[in-house]
Amino acid sequence: MQAEPVTARARRWMSVGRSTLPDSRAAAIEAASAALRGPTHTDAAKLLVVFCSNRHDLPALLATIDEISGHAPLVGCSTAGEISGDGPTDHGVVIAAFGGEGFSVSTRVCTDAGSRPRAAGAAIAACAADVADREHQVLMLLIDGFAQEQEEIVRGVYGVVGASVPLVGGCAAEESHLGATTQLYGTDVFHDAAIAVAIGSDAPFGIGIRHGWRKVGDPMVVTESHKGWIKTLDDRPALDAYLERVGAPAEACRDFASFEPYSVTRPLGIRRRSGDEVRGVTGHTDIERKALHCGGEISQGSLIWCMEGSPETMLEATDDACLDALAAIGDRPPLGFLAFDCSGRRNVLGGGIGDEVARIAKHAAGAPVAGFYSFGEIARTRGINGFHHQTLVVLAVA
Description:
- The protein is α+β, with helices and mostly antiparallel strands and 398 residues long.
- It folds into 2 domains: 6-210 and 313-397, no CATH class; 215-308, no CATH class.
- The chain has helices spanning 6-10, 24-36, 58-69, 117-125, 150-161, 238-245, 256-263, 311-327, 343-349, 353-364, and strands at 13-19, 45-52, 74-78, 82-84, 87-89, 93-99, 103-110, 136-143, 167-171, 183-185, 188-190, 194-201, 205-210, 214-226, 229-233, 236-237, 268-272, 275-279, 292-293, 303-308, 336-342, 369-374, 377-380, 387-388, 392-397.
- Strands 14, 15, 16, 17, 18, 19 and 20 form a 7-stranded antiparallel sheet that branches. It has a 6-stranded mixed sheet with strand order 1-6-2-3-10-11. A 6-stranded mixed sheet has the order 5-4-22-21-25-13.
- A hairpin with a 2-residue loop joins strand 4 (82-84) and strand 5.
- The longest helix is centred in the C-terminal third of the chain and has 17 residues, at 311-327.
């Protein structure tokens, strides 16, 4: 790739720090100090993005980061594992810092997002107007991974910004089976919140969206559904039709403990105009009533497939997502990558997650990488749909 002039790169910088220290204050000091050091980072950071385990003392973590950064704007969320160029971690902290005159940033948070999803999306999308004078924009969303009707939040955002601003981001996750995720804004910790960050830049952004799943068998028609629940497929009980199609063992039909490990690596695909989107089959599936619950609405009349994947197909998708993101920024070298990777893909990769992150870092070509394992991904570059499951989304920052 052709290198940018040094003066141009000095106008925009991105750096990443991480820590696996168990003490929250010590982890904050290590990660924030690494993200904010360097001779080109003499000006204050415009934005800090924090991905961290919810096992940490989050108020203490945020207060320490705020002190070190000089009160830089901060957004973030809890994770099911963190990603940096040094590899994947659990129970850790990863901080991405953005700075320089070539960036402008505006943020919004809305609480109680689950009870008013479309209104919440519209409220946070208002921040995009504050960076409208920049040639290039992206709107990053971080929302509660357990919020109801997450797609409605994304639709609310789209209703404000339309097709003019690409969307990227992910749904907060958790690794401790607490049944709650956290969203981070400044020094505050929220649940059931939605956050938007509008980033304006003198240089382009690139987004890659790939999942690595492939269709299994013939399509099925959703013949009865309601708000994420699929009750019948081809006029049969949805659970029966699904398990038959994926060739599940008999015990998966009888109890949830047997069903969940099987279903987590066998999502559903939906036909869209822009391509196939993936929806995970969640832990709320009702074994007794034989109804499937999906992380996102699947409308009655939709054509769906069962899907399967392997470590090899996941890694191929990783390469393709990175290459797509790089292609979108042309011949400019990346300042860095942000990666939003579903925990469902991680389940398929198993011990191969190190290989996946190494591939992302290789495509970044020495530029910093930050990201997390999520409970849903957000990416819209065309069309109106922007909510995904079991997918990898890569944002390349030029």
